[in-house]
Amino acid sequence: MKNKNFLFLIFISSMSVLTYGQTTTFNKLDAKGKKTGYWKVYLNANAMLTDSANSYFYGYEFYDNDKAVPGIFEQVKEYSNIKLIFSGKTSTKGNPIAINGMLKEYFIKEGKDELNAETCYRDGFPQTFKEYLAGNIITLADFTKRYNYIEGTYFISDYLTYIVTSETRRKTTCYWYRKEKNKWIGLKRLVSK
Fold first, then answer.
1. Which of 38, 56, 128 is nearest to 92 (CA)?
2. How far apart are CA 36 and CA 62, in angstroms?
3. Paired residues of 59 in beta bridges
4. Taking the CA atoms of the chain, what radius of gyration do you get in angstroms?
5. CB neighbours of 26 closer than 8 A, spacing ≥ 6?
6. d(CA 187, CA 174)
7. Residue 7 belongs to a domain
8. Residue 155's beta-bridge partner residues?
9. What is the pLDDT of residues 134-187, one digit of tens each?
10. Which long-range contacts (C-beta less than 8 Å, at least 24 apart) are formed by 2-10?
11. Considering only CA atoms, which of 193, 185, 68 is closest in space to residue 126?
12. Which parts of the chain sit beneath pLDDT 70?
């Protein structure tokens, strides 16, 4: 009896070792030579794409058919009316570390900073993205939730607050961002009215 339990324990342990890591691929090309899976990208002090010599961080961007999906790092841009503030462990230029922390994006409006978005990163991967309007969260993307454990997929909640006859109501729409018929789309479903 003890041998059966011991063998079962070894079988379970070996299965967990064999399956661990199978869901994540790094720096791979498909049969056509196009990027697929997660690719290491280099980032400056404000989490914007750069080359390794000018980088402070590195992160992982998901690619499908040579295109970044959803292109989290490609979307970070600096404009004259936007201020980016990163809080977390930092490095020195040219010695990148995995990005860990929070990147906040502020609109500069009439001399005041208004929080527009924040992205939380852990070990180089985006964890959550929140978008704000007038101090209220309007979008939450959770990159830790995957549709059927498929790489590159994630869960989104959109919040709409509106007033009907002096009563504030909130409508929530949730959906999975995933690939459907060779296109990356959000498949929506209404959660509440």
1. 56
2. 7
3. 41
4. 21
5. 37, 38, 39, 40, 60
6. 8
7. no
8. 142, 176
9. 888 999 999 999 998 888 889 999 988 776 777 777 788 888 888 888 888 887
10. none
11. 68
12. 1-23, 71, 74-79, 163, 188-193
The predicted model scores a pTM of: 0.78
3-state secondary structure at position 65: coil
Q: Are 133 and 155 in contact (CB under 8 A)?
A: no
Q: Please indicate, yes or no, if residue 1 is contained in any of the structural domains.
A: no
β 112-122/101-109 pair status: antiparallel
Q: With the C-alpha atoms ordered 23, 131, 160, 182, is the resulting torsion angle positive or negative?
A: negative
Q: H or E segment at 16? A: helix 2-19
Position 108 in a domain: yes
Confirm whether 5 is domain-assigned.
no
Quickly tell me which residue has 């998901």 as its tokens: 62
Q: How far apart are CA 85 and CA 56, in angstroms?
A: 14
Domain around 32: 24-192
Q: How many domains does the chain have?
A: 1
Round to whole Å and give the CA distance between 86 and 93: 15
